[in-house]
Design goal:
The protein has 205 residues and is mainly α. It has 2 domains: 68 residues, 3-Layer(aba) Sandwich (Glutaredoxin); 118 residues, Up-down Bundle (Glutathione S-transferase Yfyf (Class Pi), Chain A, domain 2), CATH 1.20.1050. The chain is 51% helix and 8% strand. The protein has a two-stranded parallel ribbon with strand order 1-2. A two-stranded antiparallel ribbon has the order 3-4. A hairpin with a 2-residue loop joins strand 3 and strand 4. Helix 5 packs antiparallel against helix 6 and helix 7 crosses helix 8. The longest helix has 30 residues. The two termini are 28 Å apart.
């Protein structure tokens, strides 16, 4: 395997987020449809996307890859070396993955026609379902709004926590999820999608 090749799906966070320009690595696009190709399952038996091949080592899961690349490149600005500062980034990454990302995804499913095994656009959107879902996820988004720093970046400075969240926040521009009741989240999204690195990554859904 070539060093630092990252098979991604067209809608993978590592396809559409700033790491494509922060780390300048080699990418291969993998179709979202199931079943995964045999060559990919051989690389990543779980079958999730993305996966990273780095000089014989294979690593999967977006956040694990972000942590690894930032540490490998000694990017303390993105993933601090100081234990307590790093713990704050790790805490936010875990909170995002376990609590907040699922809330956004719940809205994305009908808004973007997500179908398991086929991805976004795999089926017709269901706009009639959106108002009830927006109301249901409002408490979670209010909680997130209370955690996001009002300066723009989630933790007050740009880190891999922002990189992880950027694709999901970008999709709210297409799902039409109203973030105005959550001003810190809305400011966070706008600051991320305005970054030159994000624009250069040519983000997709």
């Amino acid at each position: 395997m070539k060093p630092l090749s990252i098979p991604t799906r067209p809608r993978s966070p590592l396809r559409s987020a700033p790491p494509t320009t922060v780390f300048k690595r080699q990418f291969a696009i993998l179709p979202f449809d199931l079943p995964r190709p045999g060559w990919y399952v051989a690389v990543n038996p779980v079958g999730g996307i993305p996966a990273l091949a780095d000089d014989g080592m294979v690593l999967a899961e977006s956040n694990a890859i972000l942590r690894y690349l930032a540490a490998r490149e000694q990017r303390d600005d993105l993933y601090p070396g100081h234990l307590r500062d790093r713990a704050a980034v790790d805490e936010f990454l875990d909170r995002w993955a376990l609590t907040f990302r699922p809330a956004f995804f719940r809205f994305e499913v009908p808004a973007l026609g997500f179908v398991a095994g086929r991805g976004m656009g795999g089926g017709p959107p269901d706009p009639a379902a959106l108002p009830a879902i927006a109301e249901a996820i409002a408490p979670t988004l209010r909680m997130l709004d209370g955690l996001v720093d009002p300066s723009g970046p989630a933790l007050g400075r740009f880190t891999i926590a922002d990189v992880s969240a950027a694709p999901v926040l970008y999709r709210t521009m297409h799902t039409r999820l109203d973030l105005s009741p959550y001003p810190n989240v809305e400011r966070w999204r706008d600051s991320l999608i305005a970054r030159k690195a994000f624009i250069a990554a040519d983000p997709v859904l």
